[in-house]
Amino acid sequence: MMSINLEALREAVKDMRYLLNRGYNRKTAADYIASRYKLSKEERAIIFRAVYPEQQVQNILKKLLSPKDIIGERLLIDGFNNIITLESALKGHILLMCDDGVIRDISYTSRKFKFSLYTEDSIKMIFELLKVYRPAEVIFLFDQQISFSGELASIIRDIIEKENLVGYAKTSKRNDKEILSIGEIIASSDSIIMEKARKIFDLAGYIIKSKFKDKILDITSFK
Hints:
By secondary structure, the protein is of the alpha/beta class. The protein has 2 domains: about 5-50; about 60-220, Rossmann fold (3-Layer(aba) Sandwich). About 50% of the residues lie in helices and about 15% in strands. It has helices spanning about 5-20, 25-35, 40-50, 55-60, 80-90, 115-130, 150-160, 175-180, 190-195, 205-210; strands at about 75-80, 95, 105, 135-145, 165-170, 185, 200, 215-220. The strands form 2 sheets. The protein has a 5-stranded parallel sheet with strand order 5-4-1-6-7. Strands 3-2-8 form a 3-stranded mixed sheet, sandwiched between helices. α7 (about 150-160) links the parallel β4 and β5 (about 165-170). α5 crosses α6. The longest helix has 16 residues, at about 5-20.
């Protein structure tokens, strides 16, 4: 795990919560606090991605499901979101237990994605879970604006067929909107999607808590 000034980060997290609970803009609050505590780029990313106002936290927590809740149900998987989070875990990058009960990394999805052995292993872990907690239908959506989306969708379709699961994978020009329109249970850690979703399964987070628990920085413990 990268070098982090935990003492400064703890105070920064508390200040970030204070400002967000009073309606401050997330970016403005993060910039102010990062300057005040002289946070590194990574430490600023932590408070930006892991800290949430109490009202939003409660809204998300009541939607979160356990893996048993996806059995026999339709599951919509935000493809890049889950794969990239799991890749971060495999690479040993920092993982965060966020205020809203969801596991996130501190990477930002760019439009350039490179398929690697980490990608293969991430997909393998996802399907290991799906074979145990078999949904009635599983749908993977990949943002068409990100490179390799079509190839990934094709790979996933082949695995779905091979594993005798019901479902499909496709690319989408309006990924977030389509995810919300067809998904009752959504597997994504994207905070905007989660706010609007009816039910949420933190798929990547569940896998990470099972396999990479010692790599998680628990922001919820910073009181």
